[in-house]
């Protein structure tokens, strides 16, 4: 999770090459991330990685990580993603009306209680 936060810092500083290098390191250990996230924060790492990849214009990884966040904690991230996509200051606002994003939300909304 710390690597992901470092990558977000590099994204904020517009140091995209450095952000990508840190994300590559985070990807290598991502499988173990769930072990270290608290139960109420499951999916946080994937959610934050999606934001980073959005800034890096890596759409496939954005959707992979958004889906991972939704799988880990659908109740929390379904609500959060719906809020973010409607907030003009959010990077996810750029996905508003995107068919792939809408399909992802609908898939998890139908699974959510």
Structural commentary:
This protein is an all-alpha fold and 113 residues long. It is built from 7 helices and no strands. The longest helix has 14 residues, at 16-29. It is globular and about 35 Å long. The N and C termini lie far apart (28 Å).
List the helices and strands and how they pair.
Blueprint (H helix, E strand, L loop, with lengths): L1 H11 L3 H14 L3 H4 L7 H12 L3 H14 L1 H12 L13 H13 L2
Give a concise summary.
The termini are far apart. The protein is mainly alpha-helical. The chain has 7 helices and no strands.
Keywords:
globular; 7 helices; mainly alpha; about 110 residues; about 70% helix
Radius of gyration based on Cα positions = 13 Å
Helix content: over 70%
Strand content: under 5%
| DSSP strand tally | 0
Low-confidence stretches: none
The assigned structural class equals mainly alpha
Profile the largest sheet: none
């Amino acid at each position: 999770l710390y690597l992901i936060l470092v990558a977000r810092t590099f994204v904020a500083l517009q140091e995209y090459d450095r952000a990508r290098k840190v994300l590559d390191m985070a990807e290598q250990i991502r499988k173990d991330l769930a072990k270290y996230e608290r139960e109420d924060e499951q999916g946080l790492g994937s959610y934050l990685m999606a934001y980073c990849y959005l800034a890096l214009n890596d759409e496939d990884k954005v959707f992979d990580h958004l889906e991972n966040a939704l799988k880990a904690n659908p109740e929390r991230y379904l609500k959060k993603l719906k809020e973010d996509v409607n907030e003009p200051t959010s990077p996810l606002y750029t996905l508003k009306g995107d068919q792939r994003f809408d399909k992802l939300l609908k898939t998890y909304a139908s699974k959510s209680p």
